[in-house]
Amino acid sequence: MPWFGFGYSGFGQLGLGEERTVNLPKPLQINGGTIESNKQICRVVPAWSYSAVVTEDGSLLLSGLISGCPKQHLRVQGLDCSDILPSEKYLILLLRERAECWDINTIDVEGTLPKAMWKMELPVGHDVAFPLVAKGHVFPQPPFFRELPATVRAQKMALGNEHAVLLTSDGKVLTWGAGRHGQLGHEDVEDVSEPRIVEALHGVSMGEVAAGGWHTACISEGGDIYCWGWNESGQLGLPSRTLGQERMNSGEESAAVGDGEFIAIQSFPALIDLPQDTEASKISCGSRHTATVTRNGELYTWGWGKYGQLGHGDTTSLDHPKRAEFFPQNNLCVKDVTCRYWNTYVLCLQETK
């Protein structure tokens, strides 16, 4: 299945040459690969200045700013890698029997295997989703492993810039970390040091969670989307003062809208409607944008769009979900989406007519 990428590519992290802004989905071409070779990609996760890719044979591909060298395209083979957690300084890898961390600045430009600065052995049959590991989770800053309370039965987890969100095996959502933008969903802007249940979602079983820079999103088992946190760029899919003012200045809105109709911070989960009562299946968040995949294989995006990360062929920001028309126009069924920082990556299936 082919992968497509769009958004910021100033360091070559999309593998698409000299383009700085990619506002329409393009086939991912890491290491100069073709659209056919990128079908071997099984995982793509962007940091800010580079992208990390895992292939079906467990190799690692890196594209972008590596070891201070822009537009490097590196392949590290023989890893048996299955997942990754990249940051600007560290890269944490999930291997067959362990997790380990590399310092990005020590990776040789020839792609030789660097020395791990941290390792953690994992039990046989490790079956929780990365960055979860046995008894806790990895984190792209020291200490690289953090324990979770023994009472928490974790299923999935996502990390924001300053907060974490966790989905339990019985469908509950827990959050902790910085709360100054309402990203914890506890109806206030206070910090929380330990995982706490988002009480506003009580009685609604969740199936997916995502964390942006300073916002959070989740999908219920029934396909409903809930968002909360910072809404400066419309990333919650709720009316944004910034975007409303831009529309007024451009003449799209002729009458002033009262401050009460704009939402800067949403400190508890808000239900976000997709057009035609469409049900969502996957969700992911960048720093200030959000993307969701529907059960019928469509992609909707909203939020900050300055670098084309919404995939609508422009750099407009949106405070409401909008379908990315590129995929149905090209007979592509969207299966998954990954956002981080100013980028979006999409996994597709070519439909036959």
How does this model look, in words?
The protein has 353 residues and is mostly beta strands. Helix content is 4%, strand content 45%. The chain is built from 2 helices and 27 strands. The strands form 7 sheets. A 4-stranded antiparallel β-sheet has the order 2-1-27-26. The longest helix is centred in the last third of the chain and has 9 residues, at 241-249. It is globular.
Helical percent range?
under 10%
Structural class: mainly beta
Rounded mean pLDDT score: 90
Number of strands: 27
In the predicted model, the low-confidence regions spanning at least 5 consecutive residues are none
What tags apply to this protein structure?
single chain, 353 residues, mainly beta, four-stranded antiparallel β-sheet, 2 helices, globular
Topology record:
Blueprint: E1 3-8, E2 21-27, E3 41-46, E4 50-55, E5 60-66, E6 69-76, E7 81-86, E8 90-95, E9 98-103, E10 118-121, E11 132-133, E12 136-138, E13 145-147, E14 154-159, E15 163-168, E16 173-177, E17 192-197, E18 206-211, E19 215-220, E20 225-230, H1 241-249, E21 265-272, E22 280-285, E23 289-294, E24 299-303, E25 318-323, H2 326-329, E26 332-340, E27 343-350
Antiparallel strand pairs: 1-2, 1-27, 3-4, 4-5, 5-6, 7-8, 8-9, 9-10, 11-12, 12-13, 14-15, 15-16, 16-17, 18-19, 19-20, 20-21, 22-23, 23-24, 24-25, 26-27
